[in-house]
Each structure stands twice: as structure tokens, then as C-alpha cells.
Specification:
Elements: H1 25-28, H2 55-88, H3 91-117, H4 123-142, H5 149-176, H6 186-200, H7 202-216, H8 235-244, H9 255-266, H10 271-287
Helix pairs in contact: 2-3, 2-4, 2-5, 3-4, 3-5, 4-5, 6-7, 8-9, 8-10, 9-10
Length: 288
């Protein structure tokens, strides 16, 4: 058997051998080399793909959050089991019920991660995840000594820590996928802002809220077409504006048909007043 390690060429260099031991492992993975010829092991990526910065840190954070969710989930489950069992005096049903909120939170968090990976916003899933975590915190709080701040903090900390970590993980994954997701806390912040506005200007805030609700839920049978009439615009003004751009504008023979078409969009419940208004427009065009 020939010893390839002793084989040399005429210029004193060994020939390339077919053994993997003679090939750098990073070259087998297709790792790019730096400008000095050294392989950058942190940039190893599949051929044709560019590794995004921070991928390794994101993986480490995901593993740590998974471990945190498992640990905090067990602590939260045990606290709820003790509390529920004291009320029901049935071990198995208490164990099953104690898993509900925590399992629901993890399920919605996984759905949120799936949506983020698919490049879709996951506002509903994130809100449900936080809602289940909040419910778990409340259940834990019921078993605490409410007169002791230290007891309250110890009992609610697991659920709150999971909620913060899991929601930020979903947000980071969504940002990495290029998704502009809105925080589920935004409606809460908006609501608090309007509470403050109501305290400072109650009258204007109340009337503004009233107009918003009435516009969002019109009386059945009298809905206003939102694409035709603008905010603060009268029915006659809206009708005239739409009629000015209509192909049959100025044609008295088609006024009745056009009035029937534009009246609902302008806010008229009946085409009769709209037809009268359009005849008036045609007369104004003739006299001018």
C-alpha cells in the first residue's frame, strides 16, 4: 500500500489528497474568507444565502426564552394548582385547569412566531398571548397574601416575565422578517391618552366620540356611502361635487337617472330632493 504522506512532486510539494483531513472543515461548509485569507467562522451560511447580522444571538435568545418559559410555566402552574385544589378539592381536575392559561399563552406565542416567520403581522396573536399571561398572573395573585407586597411580587413575577420575554421575541422575529408590526400595547396607550383628554376637555371629547360612533354605526336603512360624502360636507354640496365630475353632467334628460345613482352616495334617503337639486344645477349652468 502506497504511503501518500511520503509522496512528493518534483518541486517538493505534496499533491492534493482525497482525504477530508487535508481539507479545512470551514471550506466544506462554504464559509467565506476574509480579506487576509482567513475563514470567518461566524459567517458560515448555506450557499446562495447571506447570513443576517445577529442571527446567532437571536438563536441563543430564543433558546434562553424557551427555557425561561418552561421554568416560569412550571412555577405558575404549581401556584395555580395549589390555589385551585384548595377550592375544588379534586387533584386531577385542578391539575388540568391549572395548565389552561399557560398552555394557551404558549400556543398563541407560537402562532405569533409562525405569522412573523411568514412575514405577516401578529397583533391578535400577541394580544392573546399577553391576555393569557395576564390571566395567569391574576390567578397567581389570588393565591398570594394580598397584604404583603413581597408575596404579591413573588406570585405574579413568573407570568409577567414570560409575557415580556415572549412578546419581545415575536417582535424581533417579525422585525427580522421585515414586518412592520404594531404593538398590542398601542390601543391601551391610545385609550389612556383619551382618558387624559377627557379630563382636560370633556365636552369636545364627548361630542367627538359621539360623532365617531354614529359614523361607524349608522341607522339601518339610512347608511351614508363613506366613499361619496366627506366629513363635515352637506348633502347638497356632496351631490354637486359628484355631479360635476359625472359624464352626464348638464344633460337634463338624464337628471332623473343620475339623481337615483348619486343620491345614496350623497346621503339622500330619497332620490326626489337630489333630482330637484340637480335640476337647479342644470338651470344655473344654462343661465351662466
Amino acid at each position: 500500500m502506497t504511503d501518500l504522506s511520503d509522496t512528493t512532486t518534483t518541486n517538493g510539494h505534496r499533491p492534493a489528497t482525497p482525504f477530508l483531513g487535508s481539507v479545512p472543515f470551514s471550506d466544506l461548509l462554504g464559509a467565506p474568507r476574509a480579506g487576509n485569507g482567513q475563514t470567518n467562522v461566524y459567517d458560515i451560511a448555506p450557499p446562495g444565502k447571506t447570513r443576517q447580522p445577529g442571527t446567532g444571538l437571536l438563536v441563543i435568545a430564543s433558546v434562553l426564552i424557551l427555557a425561561l418559559a418552561a421554568g416560569m410555566g412550571y412555577v405558575s402552574w404549581f401556584q395555580q394548582f395549589v390555589f385551585i385544589d384548595l377550592a375544588k378539592h379534586a387533584a386531577l381536575p385542578s391539575q388540568i385547569q391549572a395548565t389552561g392559561l399557560d398552555v394557551g399563552a404558549v400556543s398563541f406565542a407560537l402562532l405569533g412566531l409562525a405569522h412573523a416567520r411568514m412575514g405577516r403581522p401578529a397583533v391578535i396573536e400577541r394580544a392573546l398571548n399577553l391576555g393569557c399571561a395576564a390571566g395567569s398572573a391574576v390567578m397567581n395573585l389570588l393565591g398570594a397574601h394580598l397584604g404583603s407586597p413581597r408575596s404579591v411580587a413573588v406570585f405574579i413575577m413568573p407570568a409577567l416575565l414570560y409575557a415580556a420575554a415572549s412578546d419581545r421575541l415575536i417582535a424581533v422575529v417579525a422585525h427580522r422578517a421585515g414586518v412592520e408590526s404594531r404593538s398590542p400595547f398601542r390601543p391601551l396607550g391610545t385609550g389612556l391618552l383619551y382618558v387624559l383628554r377627557f379630563a382636560l376637555a370633556a365636552r369636545s371629547t364627548w361630542f367627538g366620540l359621539r360623532r365617531m360612533v354614529l359614523a361607524a354605526a349608522p341607522v339601518p336603512g339610512k347608511e351614508l356611502a363613506r366613499d361619496g360624502r366627506r366629513a363635515g360636507e352637506s348633502k347638497a354640496a356632496a351631490l354637486r361635487r359628484m355631479y360635476a365630475t359625472h359624464p352626464a353632467c348638464g344633460d337634463r334628460a338624464q337628471v332623473s337617472r343620475v339623481a337615483t345613482e348619486l343620491a345614496p352616495r350623497a346621503g339622500y334617503a330619497d332620490a326626489g330632493p337630489a333630482r330637484t337639486e340637480l335640476y337647479r344645477v342644470c338651470d344655473e349652468v344654462v343661465t351662466s
